[in-house]
Design a protein that fits this description.
Blueprint (H helix, E strand, L loop, with lengths): L3 E8 L14 E10 L3 H12 L18 H11 L5 E8 H4 L8 H19 L4 E5 L6 H12 L10 E5 L5 H14 L13 H5 L4 E7 L13 H4 L2 H18 L5 H19 L7 H8 L8 H14 L5 E3 L2 E3 L4 H32 L13 H11 L2
Parallel strand pairs: 1-4, 3-6, 4-5
Antiparallel strand pairs: 1-2, 2-3, 7-8
Helix pairs in contact: 4-5, 10-11, 10-12, 13-14
Length: 386
């Protein structure tokens, strides 16, 4: 597997006084991950695209050149053709500083460091991270110290690598800055615009996870019409309560199967927030799991991922269109109908087969009278009498 390099940048500030003017409500950290051998090509293509939008020596998300949302959207569409992945941690400071154990800034950032260390390295265990050496709040230095002291290293001589670089001379740090700033336009109250909802859709194929924290309840990235009819908040809240319970109970696990299950859940959560009515093809989920487990396949996905998550009482629906977290009664009806359309013909086939067997053996063989099939016989009798 080729080595991965992550270019990391953050949006927001450390202040917990988000109610004051000039202080951000959200703190966002994004890593833009690229195959090491693809870096020269991605770097040159990014520089070429950027030259069509600005003549400034450095692409900055907050620059005057990209204040026009239409221009930003167009630029994002152009760079979306480049080969990279996105992982972001998005923290809503409003939710964590009220009646929580994270009242102090250092505790807050230690927790964010833990999220990055735990989840980013789940995808890429040997990721090398590159950050701007002119960071104003030195977030990366704190993250490096956290990883050096807390990272669960799996190999004695192979641990995480870090590097600082000048954003003016490294276009890929500029790419990380622009992506992070664009994601902020979907969250930060003073930066949200009418077309902000288009940004995640443009970047969708690149996104591993937009990890919101705190996660419950999920913050949808689109407006729901006829909410009472099409979107059952009580159902959604319960499902995400169970998901968060499972994630919190297993986030420290080193088992490959558990890590793969969490990656699957992460992507289902992200896609739910993007569009709660959309089904996701298994190939899209498997592609993200294969980042860390290249021998993964559909058979294992169905048995070891979806099956085990369902065993843990996490509702994941499936159909010919793929998988999704349910959001309404209609989702559940479609799921039941899908399984019913498969199960009922199977039961009828067993009933008819048993009749043929009895006829062929003059009644000497009647499998449904065997103790092993007592419950099955009851089901067949009930369905046959309807």
């Amino acid at each position: 597997m080729s080595k991965k390099i992550g270019y990391i940048d953050e949006f927001g500030d450390k202040s917990i006084h988000f109610e004051k003017d000039g202080v951000t409500t959200f703190f966002i950290v994004s890593a833009i991950i690229i195959d090491e051998e693809s870096i020269p090509q991605v770097r040159e293509e990014f520089k070429k695209i950027a030259s069509n939008y600005t003549q400034a020596p450095e692409v900055k998300s907050n620059s005057k050149a990209f204040r026009d949302i239409d221009k930003r959207i167009k630029f994002l569409k152009d760079i979306s053709n480049l080969d990279f992945r996105i992982y972001s941690v998005i923290v809503d400071k409003r939710k964590i500083f009220e009646d929580s154990g994270l009242q102090f800034r250092n505790s807050f950032f230690k927790y964010v460091n833990g999220l990055l260390d735990r989840e980013l390295y789940d995808y890429y265990p040997y990721l090398k991270l590159v950050a701007d050496n002119h960071g104003t709040d030195q977030f990366m230095e704190g993250f490096i110290n956290y990883v050096e002291n807390n990272h669960n290293q799996t190999e004695l001589f192979r641990g995480p690598e870090f590097q600082f670089s000048d954003s003016k001379s490294e276009p890929l740090i500029q790419l990380a800055d622009f992506i992070t700033g664009s994601i902020a336009k979907c969250y930060e109250p003073g930066k949200i615009e009418q077309r902000s909802h288009e940004i995640p859709k443009i970047l969708n194929r690149h996104i591993l996870h937009l990890r919101e924290w705190p996660e419950n309840p999920p913050r949808l990235l689109r407006k729901i019409e006829n909410e009472d009819e099409n979107y059952n908040q009580e159902l959604v809240d319960f499902i995400f309560f169970r998901i968060n319970e499972y994630v919190n109970a297993n986030q420290e696990s080193t088992e490959i199967e558990i890590k793969n299950q969490l990656i699957c859940l992460n992507y289902l959560i992200y896609r739910f927030k993007l569009d709660p009515f959309e089904y996701i093809y298994s190939d899209d989920i498997i592609e993200r799991i294969k980042i860390r487990d290249i021998n993964f396949n559909k058979r294992v996905f169905s048995r070891e991922i979806i099956g085990k998550l369902r065993e843990n009482k996490i509702l994941i629906l499936s159909s010919q269109s793929g998988y999704k977290i349910p959001c309404c009664k209609g989702d559940l009806i479609r799921f039941f109908n899908n399984y019913s359309s498969q199960i009922m013909p199977m039961i009828e086939t067993l009933r008819k087969t048993n009749i043929v067997i009895k006829s062929a053996t003059s009644g000497n063989i009647n499998l449904l009278e065997e103790n092993n099939y007592e419950l099955l016989n009851e089901i067949i009798e009930v369905t046959a009498s309807r």
